[in-house]
Specification:
- This protein has 444 residues and is of the alpha+beta class.
- The chain contains 19 helices and 13 strands.
- A hairpin with a 3-residue loop joins β2 (40-45) and β3 (49-54).
- The longest helix is centred in the middle third of the chain and has 32 residues, at 246-277.
- The radius of gyration is 22 Å and the shape is globular.
Length: 444
């Protein structure tokens, strides 16, 4: 019999005692236990067996990169999350994930994304033009709509009614909140069934899938070439010559809507808030925008030359990573550093804590874009805003292009002012900003 060795443990009863508070916001508990137990700690659950949470860069690199083949996405994603947002790139694992990744990857090649930059800029211009000035305004809804419109128009060349878009956004937000409740409090599943919550949210899933199917059918009826991601998905063929079924298409499109807009909206909200709270940094970013705008660059040249704004976004995603945690399950026994873990162990990598660890960052709580400015290479074992390894976010280039253009467009048009309240957030499936307000004033 092998002898297993796990990190210092937290009592399951201690965990259970705090479960309601952990459901609302697990980050303070995680930080407390990391400080108490070290850079990895474990919990033994009668429902799930051993669970490890880590902020150790070497362990994260082994799980996500060096030995990624034996660490698969857990049932939290492949079963619970996929039930609500589809079984696609984000939620699948193993051979099926690899098959889908190979099929969809060409749609996200850098050259392909570069062709969408003008559409992206036009969508950003339209949404930024709607921003109200002269009063403190809730920032996240503005960025959420902007990012959603960019995905809809750039990747799917799709313009739905405002009511349809708002409805899809609302469904996604409601589903996310319920998914988090169900995952973090599995012992209350019977209550969710009896109260009708599960039934209600599955109706929302059906409605969201019907909206996406309408997008697919609208495109098929048009018989027009759009040369966008949706065309690529419709025309893509597996090695045997077959194409994706409607259900597969809906899965992938729904996931791209979810993952492609919400994480970007989060990052834009945090970045603008941080800029407004740090006037020296804001002045440098605004000066770069002014300098580049005088040179009449193309959109692609503009992106390539906005290096300080890129650094501000990268530093914002360090402090507030939209994908704040990721998990894997060991498909065989393995040695992780000093630990020997059993097949079936669930592992969580706290990207939020990795990004704020004093072991890897100097003054980690300080917003300092200089960490990234000047083509500084940051070790990807402890900087993971888009994940790492083969499952690196497929849309990372598109997201960065969009965010750079959005920040540039806003700083070109507005002066921004913070109410200087502490930045608050909710760690749901993504790290969602809460109650952040900015005042926009037109630049004369």
């Amino acid at each position: 019999m092998p002898t297993y060795k796990y990190p210092n443990s937290i009592s399951f009863f201690r965990f259970l005692f705090n479960s309601s508070e952990i459901t609302k916001n697990p980050i303070p508990f995680q930080r407390k236990w990391f400080e108490e137990k070290g850079d990895s700690f474990s919990v033994w659950s009668p429902l799930r067996g051993h669970i490890i949470l880590t902020r150790d860069a070497k362990i994260s690199k082994q799980i996500l990169q060096k030995k990624h083949k034996i660490y698969h996405k857990s049932k939290l994603q492949t079963k619970f999350l996929s039930k609500y947002v589809g079984y696609g790139l984000l939620t699948s694992s193993g051979d099926y994930w690899l098959q889908q990744r190979r099929l969809i990857q060409p749609g996200f090649h850098k050259e392909k994304i570069q062709n969408l930059v003008s559409i992206t800029q036009a969508s950003i211009d339209e949404e930024v033009g709607k921003i109200e000035t002269g009063q403190f305004t809730d920032l996240y809804p503005i960025m959420n709509t902007l990012a959603f419109e960019v995905v809809a128009k750039s990747l799917f060349d799709f313009s739905a009614s405002k009511d349809t878009m708002r409805r899809l956004q609302s469904i996604i937000e409601q589903l996310q909140r319920f998914i988090v409740k169900e995952i973090r409090q599995p012992h209350k599943k019977l209550k969710y069934w009896l109260s009708g919550e599960i039934r209600y949210h599955m109706k929302l899933v059906k409605e969201s899938r019907e909206i996406v199917l309408s997008i697919i059918e609208q495109r098929r009826r048009s018989h027009q070439r759009h040369d966008d991601l949706l065309d690529m998905l419709l025309n893509a063929r597996y090695e045997d010559g077959t194409s994706m079924t409607n259900d597969q298409l809906i899965d992938e499109i729904l996931i791209l809507f979810v993952a492609g807009h919400e994480t970007t909206a989060n990052a834009l909200t945090f970045t603008l808030s941080l800029l407004a709270q740090h006037q020296e940094v804001l002045a440098k970013a605004a000066a770069e925008t002014a300098e580049i705008s005088e040179k009449k660059f193309s959109n692609l040249e503009t992106i390539a030359n906005l290096n300080y704004i890129r650094s501000c976004i990268e530093e914002s995603m360090r402090l507030y990573p939209p994908a704040w945690i990721t998990d894997r399950v060991a498909t065989e026994d393995d040695f992780l550093g000093d630990y020997h873990i059993k097949k079936g162990t669930l592992l969580g990598i706290s990207i939020y804590e990795l990004h704020r660890s004093k072991q890897y960052w100097q003054n980690p709580e300080v917003f300092d874009p200089g960490r990234f400015y000047g083509n500084k290479k940051i070790d990807t074992s402890y900087y993971l805003p888009f994940g790492a390894g083969p499952r690196l976010c497929i849309g990372n280039n598109f997201a960065m292009f969009e965010m750079i253009l959005a920040i540039n467009t806003i700083l070109k048009k507005f002066e921004i002012q913070s109410d200087n309240k502490p930045i608050e957030f909710l760690p749901l499936i993504t790290l969602k900003p809460v109650g952040i307000k900015l005042k926009f004033s037109s630049i004369s």
